[in-house]
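Suppose a colleague, Dr. K., hands you the sequence of a protein chain of 126 amino acids and asks what its three-dimensional shape might be. Before reaching for any lab equipment, you can write down a predicted structure in token form. Begin with the sequence itself:
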Amino acid sequence: QVQLVDSGGGLVQAGGSLRLSCVASGRTFSGYAMGWFRQAPGKEREFVAYISWRAGSTYYAESVKGRFSVSRDNAKNTVYLQMNSLKPEDTAVYYCAGRLLPSDSGYYRASAYNYWGQGTQVTVSA
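The predicted structure, expressed as tokens, is then:
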């Protein structure tokens, strides 16, 4: 069992930046690919970013490409989501998610992940 704890959310003005963190504990972090998802009020949870275990693969939703960057420090059992040039439409609860899968298949599907953080609120004001 892996426990994930998200943090780093907050209130920021449009154009600002935030860095989210996701720390894993419990069972070894080794081998886990990680994703970031978000859910705005009244909307379905949507894919934001993905990073493979050794960071050899990263993928982003079109809406965040060029603005968000996902990274990880396996020695610290931590995954990061750097969010720049934030827009009001980025407002949502952000969740990190983990899965133990040898391929990148289905990385954009929430159902493909086994473990989830509790979420951290990001609010971007106009």
